[in-house]
Amino acid sequence: MKKILSHSLIYILFMALSTEETLAQSEINYVVSFPEAQAHYVDVEMTLKGIKSSYIDVRMPVWAPGSYLVREFAKNVEGFSAKTSSNGTLSSNKANKNTWRISGTKNKDIRINYRIYAFELSVRTSFVDAAHAFLSTSGLFMYPEGQIKSPSTVTVKPYGNWKKISTGLEPVKGKANTFYAPDYDILYDSPFEIGNHDTFEFDAAGVKHEVAMYGGGNYDKPRLAADMTKIIEAETSIFDENPNKRYVFIVHNTLAGGGGLEHLNSTVLGAIRQGYNTEDSYKSFLGLVAHEYFHLWNVKRLRPQALGPFDYSNENYTTNLWIAEGFTAYYDNLMLRRTDIYSPEKYIELLTGDINTVENQPGNRVQPVSEASVDAWIKYYRPNENSRNSTISYYDKGAMIGLIMDLEILGATKGAKRLDDVLKAMYDEYYKKQKRGYTDAEFKAMAEKIAGKSLDEIYNKYINGTEPISFNSYLGYAGLYLVNDNAGKSIPTLGIATAVRDGKLIITSVQRGTAAWADGLNVNDELIALDDYRMTGAADPKGVTDIARIVSGKKVGEKLKATISRDGIIQNINVTLTQNPGARYRIEVDKNTTAEQMEIREKWLSL
Q: What is the C-alpha to C-alpha distance for residues 44 and 31, in angstroms, rounded to an integer?
């Protein structure tokens, strides 16, 4: 059948062909410099060669992969201008919030200049001062629209006496301080640390690793290298390969550091500068190393279908962050157990804390973890005073799903298989063989194949539903059980959290279903008195506050008069104390553990 194309369709095809011609011949290069580093600026010069179209749009990403929030990086751009290679001025205008349109570009090479204000030191945002520069590339480099797959080079002109550059990008031979990115997905996945930071190297799992330490600290390099090697090799053994030849850890050591962000062959970590010689702080840092390095496989390669190729101008939604982040959160401490950095007892203690965190959050009964994954863009990174009542973390709840799925598979296969096998099979099938992301249904099907049984209960009740997890059903496979020390006790609660602000005791949160919730105490109320006793929020040497002392002297069902100031108006509100809904869990060993249960426990905990 012969088809006649409309004028509109012919135009669209013409434009597509025109764009393809432009992409095939365009050459993209960047130069970054720091003429005013002390004022937190980085200057970017972008050159485009071989443009065939009459205009070109360049865009700044609005978010950083791995951190699911639209951060509007274009807000930091100043002084945008465009010129020809012969220094002729080109017309440019702001087409929308993150797009600049440059006209008169046909058959010209052009040079674009702009500045970025960089003064937010985090793992996902750029920071520049006289001491160093950390460049989070998705908030730094604009890309020509339609050219995400185009290669580019980045040349760094260090400030003052800066001598070191650490990045996952490969250097260009014969060009000083110049690096090559095969496409923008790689460029935006390769941060830079530039300055005079301390560096050390070690080999692990056949891969050369560089550690770039900014900010000083009391770290022990040989100890760190040895412990990081254990973690890297334990994680590599799950997937039977480490896909990198080189990997870079960028570590920002600050007064109260924390957090991390994964990349394809690098990561950025925040650490407490003087925390390396304290066991809990040191091992917490190693847990962060384990978490971000595990992302090398889980999310950077084995990924939900929505997480790549990326749309850098809009949200990228998935229901599976509970796998991408939650399972990674399950494995971080588990890896420290497998490497004997944590004892079995310490691991169980930390696991108990995680269970308490999830089960004592009211939002766990409101928001399914699959929904929490989708809502990351609007809720997780923007918590408010009611978030605990209405949301659950896909990290925390996802880790619990990882726990029960691991134990379910171990139990169903009598210890022959576990969650490791699911991740390895998914990695082989979807990353290596099909070279794409997976769907929710595909992950469930593979997990059920490995388990040899349906996982509908886990999915229907705990992933897509909000029922309390029956932990004993899963811990029982390993001869363990969960005990609630608060069960059967009458414990009154008011249900508020407070903080002292400008000398006033302010209610900062109200817990769903408690006395304060039911009887109308509000966030931002100033709490003046309870039963006519002045409240200050002060605590005794044991940490018991004056509020807790008043409440603990009452019984569930008794009334309490709360005197508050709301918007400058003094009010008395009668509150009927309710039962504290919080649980206090601990994990115990079943005295009647069977040989099969003991075998599963040994495999799970690497005993």
A: 6
